[in-house]
Each structure stands twice: as structure tokens, then as C-alpha cells.
């Protein structure tokens, strides 16, 4: 019985390894925009595994666009403030930024819904203190973490 369990475990691990390295089968994307709704703000983090730096543009509900530059294999965030409460659509577009004269290549065009809450003067004040003292991981607003 124990021999069959070990054999099944080895077979399962081998299959999992084969799937993980199989070209084109991985579920991870080259970039992963992570919009997080907060209290009248949205934080978008872009993580890149591209071999070129990226120029990304982020907007909420088609409004003002903010640009962020993501280094090769890096991660960058942008915080968009004064966002109306409710379900909002966050669009992230990223292009490679290769050396001139190489053309830019679109690598991401993502639109995701995010829930934005009403501001709260007391909690926003507490979060201001936490962020100011280097304890942003304890902030009550997820967009400030």
C-alpha cells in the first residue's frame, strides 16, 4: 500500500513539473495589472517579466490617464485619487519601450472592475498616521497598503 502511494506521489509531481514547463501552458501572463479599490482611490500595480522596459497608462472609467514606467522584470504602482464611489472600470495599457529605432509593441490592454468605497475621515486620518510612520501594511484602506 505504501509503495503505491509513493509511486502515485512521484507520478503526480512529474506531471505537475511537465505542465509547469510546457511551452504556452502556464497561466501567468507577461504582465499582471492588479487594481485595488480603496476609499475614493484606486491603486494599480503592474509587475513585468518583459525583457524591455514598459510604459503603462492607467485610467479609471476613461478619465484622466496616469503614466507609469515599469523597469525590466520590475514592479511599479500608481495611486489614483478622487475616484467616485461605486464599481469602476480600471484600464491598463502597456507598451514595450525598446531603444530607438525599434517599434513599441503592445503587451497589455486590460480592463477590470474595481469596487471603490466612500471616504471615511476617521479611518483616512488613521491611515495617514500609519503610512507616515512606515506602517502602511497596517492601513485600513487596501489601496494604501
Question: What are its keywords?
Answer:
145 residues; alpha+beta; 4-stranded antiparallel beta sheet; 3-stranded antiparallel beta sheet; 2 helices; 7 strands; disordered N terminus
Describe this structure in words.
This protein is α+β, with helices and mostly antiparallel strands and 145 residues long. Helix content is 22%, strand content 39%. It is built from two helices and seven strands. It has helices at residues 2-21, 121-132; strands at residues 31-37, 41-48, 54-60, 65-70, 75-81, 86-96, 106-116. The strands form two sheets. It has a four-stranded antiparallel β-sheet with strand order 4-3-6-7, with no helix packed on it. The chain has a three-stranded antiparallel β-sheet with strand order 1-2-5, with no helix packed on it. The longest helix has 20 residues, at 2-21.
Amino acid at each position: 500500500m505504501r509503495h503505491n502511494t509513493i509511486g502515485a506521489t512521484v507520478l503526480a509531481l512529474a506531471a505537475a513539473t511537465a505542465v509547469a514547463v510546457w511551452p504556452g501552458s502556464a497561466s501567468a501572463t507577461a504582465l499582471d495589472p492588479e487594481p485595488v479599490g480603496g476609499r475614493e482611490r484606486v491603486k494599480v500595480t503592474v509587475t513585468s517579466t518583459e525583457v524591455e522596459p514598459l510604459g503603462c497608462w492607467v485610467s479609471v472609467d476613461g478619465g484622466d490617464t496616469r503614466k507609469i514606467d515599469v523597469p525590466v522584470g520590475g514592479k511599479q504602482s500608481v495611486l489614483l485619487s478622487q475616484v467616485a464611489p461605486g464599481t469602476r472600470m480600471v484600464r491598463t495599457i502597456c507598451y514595450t519601450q525598446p531603444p530607438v529605432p525599434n517599434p513599441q509593441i503592445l503587451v497589455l490592454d486590460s480592463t477590470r472592475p474595481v469596487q471603490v468605497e466612500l471616504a471615511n475621515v476617521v479611518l483616512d486620518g488613521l491611515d495617514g498616521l500609519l503610512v507616515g510612520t512606515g506602517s502602511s501594511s497596517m492601513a485600513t484602506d487596501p489601496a494604501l497598503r
